[in-house]
Hints:
The complex is a heterodimer. Chain A has eight helices and four strands. By secondary structure, chain A is of the alpha+beta class. Chain A folds into two domains: about 5-75, Arc Repressor Mutant, subunit A (Orthogonal Bundle), CATH 1.10.10; about 90-165, 3-Layer(aba) Sandwich (Glutaredoxin). The relative contact order of chain A is 0.11. Residues about 170 of chain A have low confidence and may be disordered. Chain B folds into three domains: about 20-235, NADH-ubiquinone oxidoreductase 51kDa subunit (Rossmann fold, 3-Layer(aba) Sandwich); about 240-325, Ubiquitin-like (UB roll); about 330-420, Up-down Bundle (de novo design (two linked rop proteins)), CATH 1.20.1440.230. Chain B has helices spanning about 20-25, 30-35, 40-50, 60-65, 95-100, 105-115, 130-145, 175-185, 215-225, 225-235, 265-270, 305-310, 330-345, 350-365, 370-385, 395-410, 410-420, and strands at about 80-85, 120-125, 160-165, 210, 240-245, 255-260, 280-285, 320-325. In chain B, the strands form two sheets. Chain B has a four-stranded parallel sheet with strand order 3-2-1-4, sandwiched between helices. A four-stranded mixed sheet of chain B has the order 6-5-8-7, covered by helices on one side. Chain B contains 17 helices and eight strands.
Amino acid sequence: MSNAKMIQSDVSSVLTLQEMAEIDHELEHIPYKSGAAIDALKIIQAGRGWVSDECLQAIAKYLGMSSEELEGVATFYNLIYRRPVGEKVILFCDSVSCWISGCDSVKQTLSDTLGVDYGETTKDNRYTLLPVPCLGACDRAPVMMVGDDLVTHLDDNKINELFSAGKTGDQS
Amino acid sequence: MGKVLTRNIEPGKAPTDMAAYEANGGYQGLRKAMSGMSPQDCREVVSASNLRGRGGAGFPTGMKWSFVPMDDKCTPGHKYLVCNADEMEPGAFKDRLLMEYDPHQLIEGMILSAYCIGADISYIFIRGEYIVAIERLRKALEECYAKGYLGKNILGSGYKLEMYVHPSAGRYICGEETALINALEGKRANPRAKPPFPQVSGLWGRPTIVNNVETLCNIPHIIDRGADWFKSLGVGEDAGTKLFGVSGRVKNPGCWELPMGTPIREILENHAGGMQDGLQLKGFLPGGGSTDFLTSDHLDLAMDYNVIGKAGSRMGTGTMIILDDQTCPVGMVLNLIRFFAHESCGFCTPCRDGLPWTRQVLEDIEQGRGKVEDLDTLEYQINYIGAIGNTHCALAPGAMEPLQSALKYFREDFERHISGGCCPYHSGRGA
């Protein structure tokens, strides 16, 4: 078997056809394969929630780069997850306007309610809590994102409303 | 003054689609340019308008573009226009508004700007958390391709341009233009050494212009209505309008389009409604987390680049963060330094090691473990890290701006923390 084919079969035992097609689509407007590194990581994460070692190595092979180099890229970016996360990631803004507006005590309530601190996932695997740089909604501080949804004007009541009865954060 | 950038924007209502945008004069600038204006004609109008970059540095847009090589025989190949939509400056929330509610205005501005510099590929580099803006921009791009405003032969002019929305994978440093270019190339977002400047050697080593969202949104209006009209919008030294924002404990935090040169007092009192009951203004950062504090003595200054510069700060993004008299200035600076230390790319030592050191000293002071000599350590850091040239990029010098001005205006607060052995403000918000 040629080297190219061996690499291909190796990769395709990990990456799906759909994932490879999506990476190829990105490569159409990128002059070098490694230029799609971040796109590829995001494509894998979109379907699987995070990027495992196995996936990282497969992507590196697919893009013709070393897995060490790709790891350096993956761990640089805070929205690429190299550990499993819950069904939804909570991105909690702790930057200056939210801090002035009292986000520290809201964060405490959130942590107490969910039983997790930054970097941890709830026991039922529904939420992972992470801090995030300023979310650009400072006129509605304090704010956070729950999955894809921005939740604004946070206070203890809002946290209780969102998380006490198994609701998800789709209201703001 | 009539609204320009926000004329289609009403938060809470539906975003502007192609039909609504065109019904209100949208794509007239593009039609005008494509039916008789050369790229040079367009560049001259933008230069004459005195438009300055709205991302924070205030660099004249026309001059930035003038460094792009325009002789295609000398530099055959692609040229790129990149929109910096990576709004992450603490306290900045203006570009989100422009993208969520009027995506076509940005796209028209990008098509025209790309035309000016002869770019054939353009990217909107947008932070990944701006989910709504990403969706709306993608939908607007589809509408543009369908109408022939993007693609191989734009409005029959022979000009071709492709445009892509590129959501970022995070990190504040991506807002630095050469770091952004590295991120677009799929690499770690360490800033690049300059020169070469991106105008000559940027994305994939090709001429590249990176402009902020708000800057680009001004272009259709400037092309459509001319430089003199644009200059007449400002009430002070600078041209045009600006999105000014106020956050912190004021009655009505928000973002408003006002003439460039609007006095700070008018923004803070008339638009933001003044301080919340029971609170007094202690100071404010006029243009985001990496600008120097100003105080109530500066309220009558005009929000113009040079005026704010002469007062010892920067207009930055134009989004002010208000410090009230019951919020701890040491705690506020600690929050900012924590942010910048966390967001350092780690490439150069003063930033990678100096910012965590500064953070530790501030934590000690805030938590009542500070010593008098800690203030000397802070001064040392300010002089060392804050000097442009000692660091690889402007992140760490920017981080020193709120710290140095806090020590200047609120030194007594630092001293009270040290002499009293605790934070005198500590009231539940903590450190």
